[in-house]
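Model it.
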Amino acid sequence: MKLLRYGAPGIEKLGALDAKGNIRDLSLLVPDLTPEWLAPERLQALAAIDLDKMPLIDPGVRLGVPVAGVRQFMAIGLNYREHAREAGLDIPKEPIVFSKAITCLSGPNDDIILPQDSVQTDWEVELGLVIGTLARQVSEDDALQHVAGYCLANDLSERDWQTQRNGQWTKGKSFDSFGPIGPWLVTTDELADPQNLAMELKVNDQVRQHSNTADMIFSVAKIVSYLSQFMTLLPGDVVITGTPAGVGMGMKPQQYLKKGDVVTLRIDGLGVQTQRVV
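Modeled.
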């Protein structure tokens, strides 16, 4: 299924995308996609709903983060070979881990809000995943069984705060609006191989990033297993898995987002995001 949440911020309702690409309302059956609804048996119950019998929703409705009740928002840095090369850094021997504040989560087409005095706000198209069942010290072979589904993400980054403010990357990654997720959560039965997905990001219709998840250094399974060795992953947790080459920081000369820019990103099977910088 392609599950989504629609409506104004803070009062979103559960919906799903039908086979024709229409938004269908599921809120009379399940008010919201909270973490307990990400368990396999609950997702199977949602999959059994005849979407053609559910009310149609205006296709222009605002879409929110596709899962409610996120408690942890984790991210992986330098996880694409070409991105590490453009940054002039060695290929990591273990995943580079940082967190983003859950307050930076936003809908897939919500505005990007430039931080005050920022001149180094950068884009990063990424494959995201949402945890479906508690994962604690799981093996790589079993890791994907704990994933409920996948989503498109933009890991926006204020590079001055990230690299020059004497601390963790979290500083540059957690501004409000710096975590657009969606438009949908695509359940794992619809996306069998997360390691072969084309991805692209444009700024003002100019392609900046064009790659494939096959270029990942650490696979989705490895990332979930690795994180679970030192922290417990909870249902509803969001993990984003790194960005490919083509970020503004890696360009010569460097280029960053400015007011009025439009960012468009996509990953095969996971939909499209479009954000305006304000």
